[in-house]
Design brief:
Blueprint lengths: L10 H8 L3 E2 L4 E2 L6 E6 L3 E8 L7 H16 L4 E8 L15 E8 L7 H14 L4 E5 L7 H5 L7 E2 L2 E2 L2 E3 L2 E5 L14 H13 L6 E7 L6 H9 L4 E6 L3 H16 L4 E12 H8 L21 E2 L6 H9 L3 E7 L1 H8 L14 H21 L11
Parallel strand pairs: 4-5, 6-12, 6-13, 7-11, 7-12, 13-14, 14-16
Antiparallel strand pairs: 1-2, 3-4, 8-9, 10-11, 14-15
């Protein structure tokens, strides 16, 4: 305890009391990171704001508790402490060649193979980040098989304003996709140079405005698009989506290797379709078997099973550990997600009451934390130019 009366406390005393309180994800002092703001001291109250690096911070409650504990133990229990938790999404802090003006973070969502729910996950991540109050854009870079417009229920044709293409907006997201430029069922047939041109236009000629996060849904595999992205702008990092089965993990490993070869930071892996939750399914669907099916052997699994691991168990978590990649979480196979995606309402998979909501938001929170870690711990260095 500092031993001063409340009337003699200063802003510096409050900051000194909070020295040593760290952001658990970043491993750095809140004061050094500039997160302690708006300090006010009155006769009986100390008020301040803790400004986090993302509104989707998974450890918000712990940070608030740690701040309160430090203040109480060092400044005394006779004072009232009014702590406001806020957040400003941060970028890497410097401007680099290729950056999209106004866009703080660009996240690529990829997979080694198709059929693992990559586009669904990219859309869910975008809506999840938005649900915490962030400004988010979603770019569909799967030029040959654009599915984002259908998943989010968006339609229309992008218009030009001056030399800038205006994105389509749906449910608060700013969107761009080849799907907006094609007639229904028309195939895209183009070679690499044309593909490069399309992706470059989507990145640098679309008027994205001010965004905290731009999520890019990549095509499956390790083809031209990731290479184009790596050449066109400095990405914050990449996420790889896979299922637990070995054949998917083999391709996911190749995707991780590709991103590393392209010098794109790995933000993490997501395991999709981790298990089928019998109890949640029966609860949603009801019917005469709802009360007894979980206990009946052979209906979905063994007697008493509430989860069935259709594609194996824990494969992505284990592979992430082997590769030294953060594991962002598992998302179960859920019929509601499939139905809402087919209806163009994928955002409803994150609505209150949705059985997928806690899993999807868990992935979003872990991803937001990894983005903050990437920006704080390993900021990209400016390129030096030697002048003659």
């Amino acid at each position: 305890m500092f031993g001063k009366s409340s009337s003699s406390l200063t802003e510096q005393d409050v900051l000194n009391a909070l020295k040593g309180v760290k952001d658990p994800d970043l491993g750095r002092d809140l004061v050094d990171l500039g997160m302690i703001r708006n300090i006010q001291v009155s006769a009986d109250t100390v008020s301040l704001t803790v400004n986090l690096t993302t509104p989707a911070c998974p450890l918000k409650a712990k940070i608030e508790s740690d701040v309160r504990t430090a203040l109480t133990s060092r400044l005394g229990t006779e004072l009232n402490y009014a702590i406001t938790m806020s957040a400003d999404v941060r970028g890497k802090g410097i401007t680099e060649k290729g950056d999209i003006p106004g866009v703080k973070n660009v996240i690529a969502v990829g997979s080694g193979k198709g059929g693992v729910g990559k586009s669904t996950m990219a859309a869910a991540i975008a809506f999840g980040l938005q649900s915490y109050g962030s400004r988010v854009g979603l770019m569909d870079a799967d030029v040959y098989g654009p599915s984002i417009p259908h998943l989010v229920g968006a339609s229309g044709r992008p218009m030009a304003r001056g030399e800038r293409i205006q994105p389509i907006e749906a449910a608060g997201l700013r969107l761009m996709s080849m799907g907006f430029l094609l007639e229904p069922e028309k195939a895209v047939i183009m070679r690499g140079p044309m593909l490069h041109g399309v992706i470059t236009q989507f990145l640098h000629q679309v008027d994205w405005g001010d965004l905290d996060y731009l999520v890019i849904d990549l095509p499956p595999g390790t083809g031209d698009v990731p290479l184009t992205l790596a050449q066109a702008l400095p990405l914050t990092g990449a996420v790889v989506v896979c299922t637990p089965q070995e054949v998917a993990l083999l391709d996911a490993t190749r995707a991780v290797t590709m991103f590393r070869q392209l010098k794109i930071p790995m933000l993490g892996m997501v395991e999709n379709m981790s298990f089928f939750d019998i109890a949640a399914y029966l609860s949603e669907r009801g019917g005469p078997k709802a009360k007894t099916a979980v206990a009946e052997p052979g209906f979905f699994g063994a007697a008493g099973d509430e989860r069935v691991y259709l594609f194996g168990r824990g494969g992505a978590r284990q592979r992430a550990e082997q590769l030294g990649v953060p594991f962002l979480g598992e998302v179960p196979l859920n019929i509601l997600v499939r139905e809402r995606g087919d209806e163009g309402k994928i955002q409803e998979a994150l609505s209150p009451g949705s059985p997928s909501r806690p899993y999807l938001l868990g992935v979003v929170e872990q991803l937001a934390a990894q983005i903050s870690i990437q920006n704080i711990k390993t900021p990209k260095m400016p390129k030096l130019e030697i002048l003659n």
